Amino acid sequence: MVDILGTSFGVFIGLTVAIMGFAAYMTGQALGNSWKPVWQVVVYCVLLGFADRFLTFALFDGVLLSVTGYLVDTAVLTAIGLLAFRLSRVRRMVGQYPWLYERVGPFGWRNRRG
């Protein structure tokens, strides 16, 4: 597992999922609330992946140039960012246009009937 992540599983959960995942969640939420396009979430999460890899190296003696570690970190951060983007976009659409749309679960909306 260390070969794939470039660090221990505990560091991956603590740093990547908890700390940097919070940053990715807040990034996705901010971009979703400000009507930015979804591709910007991916760009910012790629940058967060670089920051996560550096912090793993600097604080926990992880492998800095671990390509698989970077890809796994970035994939997790991008998934969290896109989830937050979609949740905030749905909340924004239904809240701003209540006469047009109604919520269909946490990830979607539809045209209001009648």
Write structural notes for this entry.
With 114 residues, this protein is mainly alpha-helical. It has one domain (2-111). It is 71% helix and 5% strand. It has 4 helices and 2 strands. Strands 1-2 form a two-stranded antiparallel ribbon. A hairpin with a 5-residue loop joins strand 1 and strand 2 (109-111). Helix 2 (9-33) runs antiparallel to helix 3 (39-60), helix 2 runs parallel beside helix 4 (67-96) and helix 3 (39-60) packs across helix 4 (67-96). The longest helix has 30 residues, at 67-96. The chain is elongated. 30% of the residues are buried.
How are the SSEs ordered, and which strands pair?
Layout: H1 2-5, H2 9-33, H3 39-60, H4 67-96, E1 101-103, E2 109-111
Antiparallel strand pairs: 1-2
List the keywords:
114 residues, mainly alpha, two-stranded antiparallel ribbon
Brief account:
The protein has 114 residues and is mainly α. 71% of the residues lie in helices and 5% in strands. It has a two-stranded antiparallel ribbon.
